[in-house]
Amino acid sequence: MTAARILLADDHALVRRGVRLILDQEPDLTVVAEAGDGAEAVRLAREVEVDLVVLDIAMPRMTGLQAAREIGRRTSRGSAPRMLMLSMHDNEQYFFESLRIGASGYVLKSVADEDLVGACRAALRGEAFVYPGAMSALVRDYLDRKRRGERMPETVLTEREDEVIKLIAEGLSSKEIAQALTISARTVDRHRENILAKLGMRDRTQLTRYAIRAGLIEP
Amino acid sequence: MRLYWKVVLINGAVLVAATLVLVFGPVSVSRQPAASEAAVLLPGLAVMLLANALLLRSSFRPVEKVVAEYDAMLERLEDERAASNAKALAAQEQERHRIAQELHDEVGQQLTVVLLGLKRIEQQLPPDLGEELATLRESVREGLDDVRRVARQLRPGVLEDLGLASALASLASDFAAQSPAAVQRQVAPGLPPLSPESELVVYRVAQEALTNAARHSGATSVVLCLSRVGGSVVLEVTDDGRGFDPTIAGAGLRGMQERARLVGADLTISSTRGATVVRLAVPVAA
Ligand SMILES: Nc1ncnc2c1ncn2[C@@H]1O[C@H](COP(=O)(O)OP(=O)(O)OP(=O)(O)O)[C@@H](O)[C@H]1O
Ligand SMILES: [Mg+2]
Fold first, then answer.
1. How many distinct structural domains can be found in chain A?
2. Phi first, then psi: what are they for B255, rounded to 5°?
3. Nearest CA to ligand 1 atom 26
4. Do residues A87 and A19 touch, judged by C-beta distance below 8 A?
5. Residue B235's beta-bridge partner residues?
6. Which range scores top for mean pLDDT: A6-15, A170-179, B14-23, B165-174?
7. Is A49 touching B (CB cutoff 8 A)?
8. What CATH number has the domain bearing residue A101?
9. Is residue B169 domain-resident?
10. Interface pTM (ipTM) of the complex?
11. Which residue among A105, A149, A180, B138 has the highest number of C-beta atoms inside a 10 angstrom radius?
12. Residue B109, CB half-sphere, CA atoms under 13 Å: how many?
């Protein structure tokens, strides 16, 4: 198996180096190019064949979001690479905007050490990496519509998953949910994954469609 | 001469003249005034009043001028106060912006470097040391979260990066997280662009109105609406809570007024039990 080729863009050289070391440590991931701003990322994405582009949002010359829009638009040489946004902002609106412009997910820098590798793999598989803050907005909408008696795709959540989804909707973090239900945070994360899969929010395209329908993303 | 004496003198003079006319003139008043007497008395009274009014008017003219000047001065002072408040607000926003930027771009990045570095070292250490490092990593993460939180309070990054619609959506979901009331968001598509200053004012007014609705209204439903009305973009925050007397303003409501003034927008608050509406109309630049 060949490792997935990654283009990494961040204007802060030391952050870039840190991220690179984390990714290169994984046998299935390898950073093949680095960019120090958005414009350079767009240029490199055009020149170098890559499977995934990891973009910091706050960059000079062209923000990560602008660059992602450019890179996603490029179709001349086959399909555009998958994209993942990296940022400092803990706000679900960035996640929704990322989805809207074609990225697979949004990773908060303060959890990059834990989540980045998993997010890269999910993106490469064509799945969305759902930023935890956005998940509460998504499931809140789901629960609202269910309460209003709208017809929903038939989903069978287990009793535990039902408890977890309600706490997620209230905006609790994995750690807080784990404490509330006296289970481990890892178990909570597994429930989270299962809930997303059952609601059809795992797949990037499906999730984007759902979020547009829910009015969470402007089409 | 003091105004008081002037008035006394003028009135005195008119009364004296009337008395002289009454005493020496060819008029007299019986115990039961006859119609002919009234025909003389009434015009006499009218002449007296008219003379008095004319004479007093010229005396009061300078007073009226002073009052007008005083009113104008008050108005000017009020304008100046508002302008300097506006300037202070603008300076405050600018300073917040700078600090937030610094936090994000400097402190935040450095902490990210440390976080990632620790993670990498941890994997190469014997388990007991690794565990210690893991707790260190958690406190770096907390530091990073704090920095981010403070920066977010200082400056709405979403507004700058993603625009007003996303920023309002973000306020709505913050509201949903802190209040049991249901919040509905209606942002008309294709609104004309506003200046960055105006957008910030819309954002801050929406923020304060939502905070008030969450804190004071006891509402069950809140609507956040942005639309176009004529030559203005109009923000309306409506709640169905207990209502209040908007003429008694606290710092929050005054802040809204001052910010609105800053960009020539018009803020009106109407409130009755069950319907409170904060409405901000921002003129669209031609
Ligand atoms: N939506 C509302 N529903 C009911 N009462 C309200 C509402 N908004 C404001 N009020 C009342 O008006 C008062 C003044 O509001 P204002 O925002 O000026 O001050 P505050 O919220 O008390 O304090 P702060 O300066 O922190 O905003 C509030 O204390 C509250 O009693
Ligand atoms: Mg207030």
1. 2
2. -60, -40
3. B252
4. no
5. B226, B280
6. A6-15
7. no
8. 3.40.50.2300
9. yes
10. 0.84
11. A105
12. 18
**Alpha-carbon separation of residue B165 from B49, B158, B221 (angstroms):** 68, 9, 20
Taking any CB pair shorter than 8 Å as contact, residues of chain B touching chain A are 104-105, 108-113, 115-120, 123, 137, 141, 144-145, 148-149, 151-152, 157-158, 161-162, 165-167, 169-170, 173, 176-177, 185, 189
Residue B27 lies in a domain: yes
Same domain? A62 vs A123: yes
In a domain, A18, yes or no: yes
Q: Whose CA is nearest to atom 8 of ligand 1?
A: B212
Centroid of ligand 1 to alpha carbon of B180 (angstroms): 18
Single residue among B58, B81, B104 that ends a domain in this structure: B81
DSSP line for B94-159: HHHHHHHHHIIIIIIHHHHHHHHHHHHHHTTS-HHHHHHHHHHHHHHHHHHHHHHHHHHHH--HHH
> Are A28 and A77 members of one domain?
yes
**Is B1's pLDDT higher than 80?**
no
Q: Report the residue from A15, A65, A171 with minimal CB separation from B161.
A: A65
Chain B contact for A13, CB < 8 A? no
A82-87 and A52-56 strand pairing: parallel
Rounded to whole angstroms, the Cα distance separating A219 from B259 reads 32
Quickly state the pLDDT bin for A152 (edges 50, 70, 90): low
CB contact (8 A) between residue A63 and residue B108: no
pLDDT-based confidence at residue B139 (cuts at 50, 70, 90): very high
Same domain? For A192 and A95 the reply is: no
Domain range enclosing B48 = 3-81
CB atoms within 10 A of CB B102: 13
The minimum CA-CA distance between A93 and chain B, rounded to whole Å, is 6
Mean pLDDT of chain B: 89
Residue identified by tokens 């490469």 is A124
- The encoded tokens of residue A121 equal 């793999």
Q: Which of B212, B222, B244, B245 is the best mutation target for the ligand 1 pocket, counting ligand atoms within 8 Å of the beta carbon and taking the most?
A: B212
Range of the domain at A172: 159-213
| The model's pTM | 0.81
- What is the whole-number distance in angstroms between the Cα of residue B251 and the centre of ligand 2? 7
Same domain flag for A45 and A128: yes
Q: What percent of chain B has pLDDT over 70?
A: 99
Question: What CATH number is associated with residue B209?
Answer: 3.30.565.10
Q: Which residues line ligand 1 (CB under 6 A)?
A: B 212-213, 215-217, 239, 241-244, 249-253, 276
Which ligand has the nearest atom to the CA of B244? 1
Is the residue at B173 inside a domain?
yes
Residue A150 belongs to some domain of the structure: no
The total number of structural domains that make up chain B = 2
